[in-house]
Fold this protein.
Amino acid sequence: MILRSALLGAAAVSALASAAFAERGADGNVNVLYWQAPSILNPYLSSGTKDVEASSLILEGMAGFNEKGEVIPRLAESIPTVENGGVSADLTQITWKLKPGLLWSDGTPVTSADAKFTYEYCTAPDGGCAQAARYEGIKSIETPDAQTVVITFEAPKPNPYQAFVGGTSPILQAAQFKDCMGAKAPECTKQNFGPIGTGPFMVTDFKVNDVVTLAANPNYRDPAKPAFATMTLKGGGDAQAAARAVMETGEFDYAWNTQINPEMQTQMAAGGKGVFVNGFGTLVERIEMNMTDPDPALPEGERSTTKHPHPILSDAKVRQALSMAIDRQTLVDVGYGTAGRPTCNLVPAPELYASDNTGCLTQDMEGAKKLLDEAGWKVGADGIREKDGKKLKLLYQTSVNPVRQDFQALVKGWWNELGVEVELKQVDASVFFGGDPGSPDTFQKFYADVEMYANNFDGTDPEPYLAQYLCDKIPGPENQWQGENINRFCDPAYDALVKEMAATADLAKRGELAKKMNDMLTKDSFTVVALVDRGRLSAASNTLGGVVLNTWDTELWNAQDWYRVK
C-alpha cells in the first residue's frame, strides 16, 4: 500500500506543490498525529524519534537527506564536495556557505556564529548532549565571515556530512540559547519548548506530552511555503487509534508510525479515507541487554552505571542463550507481515554496510538451554534456573504499543521455556522516549534488565550511529542521562574501529569496518539482540498532497511541500 505521491521524486512533488498553491498559508490547518507525544522540542536533549521529528519542523541544519538518501541543501547554498572545493583534498576540512538573507523566525539574521555556537553547546562539559556522536572528531570550527562555517577535523573525514546535517543535528539560535550551556541546558524550559528556528513552522504553544501548535514561519526562505497556515501536532493514544484517525474517521491528515498488525492494516485500508505509506530503511526493532546493574537497592546515581556490572547479563553465554530462544520470523508474522523482515543486524542497510550475519534467524531452544547449563544456571524445583542461590529473573521493559506487547508476550514465553522468570513492564511512549533526566522510566536511564525499542540513523552512512556505542557515550548522572550508548557496552577494540572508520575513505573498507562493529554488538557479544528490520509505516489522508515517505531523514522532512488536495 503506497501513497501515490510516494511514487514521485521530491523534485516532482515540489513542482506539483508549487502548482497547487502560490500563497503561504492558503490551505488553512493540517492535523498531524504522533501517538508518541513529543516531550521536548530540542533534539540535543532527547534521542527519542518523536522529539527529533517534531523539532525538525522548526529547526534545520545546513543540509538534510532526500528520499533516496542523497544529501540535499537546507540552509546551505550547496553541498560542499571535493570536486567543488568545499571539502579539502585531504578530507580534513569542510566549508559550508549559508544562503544569503536567511532569517530566524523572529526576523533576526542567521549567521555562521549560530552554527559555531551549536557545536559548542553540544560539546559543552556536563551538557548531556543526546547527539554528541554527530560532532565526533571535530578539531575546530571557524567563522571567517557571517556566511561561512569552516569545520576542521582531527583526521581525514571521509564522511563529513554529520555535523549540521539531518534532523538530529540542526542549528540553534545562539542568542536564544546562550545562557543554556552545559549543566544548565535542561533547565532552559522556555528555549527547549519553544525554539526559534528557520523551518517552515514556528511554535505558538506546546503542551508537553500532549500537543504542539504551530504556525507558518513568516520568514521562511520560500515566500510561497508552507501551504498550511497552521499545523496541529497532536500526541497521545496508541498506534491503532492513530491509524484509525486517518484511515477511517478522517479526523487527522497524517499519522506517524502506525505500528499495527497486517490484518488491521487491511481492514483500515478499506475505509477509503487514506492510504498507508511504507518503506524500508535502517529501522531495527531490537532488545538491548543492560550491561550494568539496575537494582533499585543501589544508591540513586549508581543504578545502571559502570560502577556495578550486571550480575546476570555480564555473561555472554546468557545473552546468547536469550537471543537463540527467539523465533524472529514469528515476530514478523505476528507484528508486521510484509512491513517487516527478520534480522540479526543492527545495521540492516544499505547493502555496503549490512553484515551477512544470519545465525540468529533459526530459533535454537535446545542450544540455548545447553548454553545456560554451561554458564552454571541449573533448573530448580520450580522450573526457574538458579546459580549461587540467585534466581535467573529479568525485568523486560518497552513502550506501550500493541505490537510491542505482543512481542513481549511471545519472548516471555520462549524465555520461560528456558527456565527464565520474566517480569514485563510497559511505559508510556512519551515518557519512555523522552529526555527528562528526573524520570526513572526513560530508555536512556534503563532501570530494567532488558528493554526493547527501535531507532535508526540519518542518511545512508552508519558511522555516527555506530559511534553511539563508544565507551564515553554511556548515559549517567554526569551527562544528564543523555548518552547514546544505551546498553552500556564498552570495548576499547570497538572504540578503535570507530576511530579507524572515521579516517577511512575507501568505501569497501568502510563497509568492512561497519560490519565488524555490527557483529561485535550482535553476534559476538549479543549486547544488541536485533529482531526485526522494520519498514516505516504511516498513514496519510487522501486529501493531503505532497507527502513523500523518507526513511533516511525525518518523516516531516518536506512538510513545507504539503498541501490540501482540492
User: Anything to note?
Assistant: The CA atoms of residues 119 and 319 lie 37 Å apart. Residues 281-535 form a domain with the Dipeptide-binding Protein; domain 3 fold (CATH 3.10.105.10). DSSP finds 15 helices and 21 strands in the chain.
